[in-house]
Design goal:
The chain has 240 residues and is mainly α. The protein contains nine helices and no strands.
Length: 240
């Protein structure tokens, strides 16, 4: 039977678990696609060695997919409303991550080849700077789409929580982080399509390191704001 919360008319715990289980299965399938996309039947010992040499690239892609999966788990842990909007956004995440796997595999394998000085496979995947720029742009578009979907999910969770609920603050923090990630992906894509790519082919990838620095800056601002609020409360005056 379709489990509904009779007081709110929204899907109950059983339906929420089914949605989470479906999302988990989709992410597991995305990891399988990441392997299959670069896999070939092994016919010799040399084939085995070439397959093992792809492990670092697979690990990089796997880590990023797990990052998105953990974000959905964090959203679920907030106990958000499981209405039609939440379901639609979750399904959009599933669709996007299944498409995102393909540029992710191409870019990570090429990046690992470059960083290894040509020791690891991947040098034959991208033939020109023009192709590299478009791969960066397509990857950035997929990354930004996923990040924006997560920002909408956490925003949806935030609006469904009471003003004094600590989970509301956590949801707001996640929303802000994913908006930063979406903007970074757009910036990386734009940078990849400029002439700068020839001089610094690593620049669009390094752009993503702005995300942890941005998260750190947000944390510093939050701590300072919390300190001002505590000081104002102790002094009995309104905070600036």
């Amino acid at each position: 039977m379709y489990d509904m919360d009779r007081t709110s008319g929204r899907p109950g715990p059983a339906e929420a678990k089914r949605l989470d289980a479906f999302v988990d299965a989709a992410f597991a399938f995305a990891v399988s696609l990441l392997i299959i996309a670069g896999g070939e039947p092994l016919r010799s010992f040399d084939d085995l060695l070439r397959a093992l040499a792809r492990i670092p690239a697979f690990l990089a892609g796997f880590a990023l997919i797990i990052l998105f999966w953990l974000a959905h788990r964090a959203w679920s842990a907030l106990g958000p409303r499981r209405d039609g909007r939440a379901t639609l956004l979750s399904l959009a995440v599933v669709f996007s991550v299944l498409v995102f796997v393909f540029p992710l595999r191409l870019l990570t394998e090429s990046a690992v080849h470059f960083m290894s000085g040509g020791l690891l496979p991947g040098g034959d995947l991208i033939a020109s700077f023009g192709q590299l720029g478009w791969i960066y742009a397509i990857y950035g578009l997929g990354f930004s789409t996923l990040a924006l979907l997560y920002a909408l999910l956490f925003r949806h969770a935030e609006t469904g929580l009471e003003a004094g609920d600590p989970r509301r603050i956590e949801a707001n923090s996640w929303t802000r982080t994913w908006l930063l990630a979406a903007a970074t992906g757009v910036g990386s894509s734009a940078l990849a399509l400029t002439p700068l790519l020839r001089a610094a082919p690593w620049a669009p990838g390094v752009t993503y390191w702005l995300i942890p620095f941005g998260v750190w800056a947000f944390a510093v601002m939050d701590r300072r704001r919390a300190g001002r609020l505590r000081a104002a409360k102790d002094a009995g005056t309104p905070a600036a």
